[in-house]
Amino acid sequence: MICPNVQKDIVNSCAKETLKAIFEDLNGDYFGILIDESKDVSHKEQMALVLRYVNKEGKLIERFLGVVHVKDTCARSLKDAICSLLLEHNLSSSHIQGQGYDGASNMQGEFNGLKTLIMKDTPSAYSVHCFVHQLQLTLVAVAKKHHECREMLRDDQTEKLEELLMLGEVHTGNGLNQELELQKAGDTRWSSHFKTVVIYLQLGKLNSRFDEVNTDLLLSMASLSPDNSFVNYDKNRIIKLATYYPNEFSASMLEDLSFELDNYIAYVRQRNNNFSKLKRLGDLLETLVKTNLHKTWTLVYLLVKLSLTLPVATATVKRAFSSMKYIKNDLRSRIDDEFLNDCLVCYIEDEVFETVHNETIIDRFQNMTSRRVRL
Questions:
Q1: CA gyration radius for the chain?
Q2: Could you read off the pLDDT of 102-137 as tens digits, one per residue?
Q3: Domain boundary assignment for the chain
């Protein structure tokens, strides 16, 4: 058990069984992909991939699939790495129904970006620029053009830092917390009217970062929301949303969807039923499954599922790189790529890993090669 190769085989068996449990949960259904790339401690460029899907219980799930070393970060290399990783796990790229990235040009490029290359193969694999990253870029853009906004944001950051210092959560020192040394532009508090202006400026910048397809997708998704007794329901927008998925909704199915929506909205808007107090699309999907109504309104269920598969934030995949720092650090900088990936799968998906039976892992380990001793 102290042999490095044996240890690697055991970890590999754990990772393979963990991924097997994830694929069983996915059940060959549609999924979205979240991608990010970063250098590890040994300065090797790594690409992490996370799957986003709806399982058989109607629950929205994001699972770490793996991290692979890429020679460069051009869009073509990343696409090849994604396709190879999916193929390795018998996942079809034709089932990709959403992409999530940050704003890097190699990801979001209109002509040769990663999202464009994937959409050439799978036209319904729409990409929405990560909301968190969009907001960050918008705040920066607004602050650069409006001095008052920049000062307000700086004051707000300084106040938060002062609170953290008082709580002892951060510490002062040479080179630390330099924001405290910046003199505030007066002690006058900003009026509510000025803050409203800032919000409108931010919204204007955000709108400029969404193309027409993104806007339609997001507004149509909002029309499906169950919040406040389905107050945002808009049948025309929902039908238009379905047209963005021509492989799933043929012309005849669109007619069926129109008829189905009339019966669906009349039922879910009734008072004191299972749908009356729902807030989110995820809650709606789970309730449809629990009440077995996903078999009655199959097209509505499919459309909500496709909507939820579309990623709008890349927090999960970024956490994968944060985890990588614990496994591949300065003391273990020479860890090989396969072992690193196996460790990450078990570490990040620990909840799934805990559900795997020890006997299953032992059987896989024993069958990897002939052993002198059976566990």
A1: 24
A2: 766 566 656 578 888 999 999 999 887 665 445 555
A3: 4-128+312-368, 132-208, 212-309
